[in-house]
Amino acid sequence: MPTTPATEVPTDEPRADVAKVRQCLRCETTFHSQWAGERICSRCKSSNTWRNGSPLGSGASGAGR
Predict the structure, then answer these.
(1) What residues are paired with 10 via a beta bridge?
(2) Which domain holds residue 17?
């Protein structure tokens, strides 16, 4: 149960971190996010590009090196 910061007394307000449908910041598809900080879908997180930490954008291919 959430608490108020000043008094640390439990409140009946819902938590901000609720599961909801969000748009992936990488591929822009909608997915079911489990908490407010989850903004990348599982498909993108399982990609080699994401797991290897490659940058996004036109320079991600490594061309010209």
Answers:
(1) 3
(2) 10-46
